[in-house]
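Blinded run. Sample ID left blank on purpose so nobody reads anything into the name before looking at the predicted structure. Input follows.
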Amino acid sequence: MKRERDLNMDLMRFVCMFMVISLHYFGEGGGTASPDASSFNVLFGSLIVVFCRGAVNCFFMNTGYFLPALKEQKINLRNSFTGVKKLYVQVWCYSFFVFSIAILMGLSQFSISGFLRAIFPCLGNQYWFITVYLLIALLKPFLAKLGESLSNQELKIGLAILFAFDVIQAVYGVNVFNEQGNGFLHAVTMVAFGYSLRRGVVRSINKWQAILLYFIACIALRGSGIIINRIPMSPISYWENMMVYNSPLVVLIAYAVFCFFSDVKVKTTIFSKFSGSVLAAYLIQDHSTMRENFWRDIVHCDSFYSSTLMPLHYLVSVALILVGGICIDYFSKRILIVLHIIYLRRRCENEK
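Blinded prediction complete.
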């Protein structure tokens, strides 16, 4: 049963990364905001953005769902840094590699601040998601022990408090936490949400119920934008209140997506084989030096704003970015392994 669940979540990572890149296609690519875009393309893009909005939350929920069972094991530097070192090395390599490639290709100009940001990706907040995710990864043992120490009732109360301040207070009240779904508070809330699903504190729904809930939540989210835009001097903003990652409807969309994949039966191991390389697609195209020019100079999104081929261009571009990033990461790791083996063999021969 655990094997099937892992395969399900590996498939979810692929789909959610496709969704994340889709958000960047229409966000950074400007397909929904450009005055040159046709009305159909604007409608198509706005719908895709809504359908993909819950993807980021799913990654944090997945972390909570698979929090380790430490029981009586003591926390030390070793189990706190387990997996984090490997992740940070991957982030650092892509941060510096993409910066160098962007300079060489003329996509960005060299600057001292950009260079420092490339070699210190977390301090420079090169990727906001990675900065928050690394902190969560470091705190995983502590969060796991805290979760194990709580009864179901206590966990339910704690989750309700987090939702009250993250999903309600930060979105519809005075945002004293400056939280828009891309900070530590929301990440912890989503981790606790995923953990509560695994514990059964939050009831999971089957895939058919998840599909129905997903479409209802997406329609409600898009409908809220139409209604808000028709209300003069509306106190609620569609993008600042409804479309942020900690919006109730966006969280509901993420819940539906997560429940769907947790209930789907996956037998192939192909997704597990490449699961460790999915992050590379994000690290390459969302790098700060690439973000401004990648979608214009490489993907050429602006050439399709008014074209009937824009939906096809979107699908092909996002698929190629995802597959290309995975291939670059997967084969580069294999090359490094081969080089390491060659090095060890030569070292043994020299010692003889």
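Unblinding after everyone has recorded impressions. The chain is about 70% helix and 0% strand.
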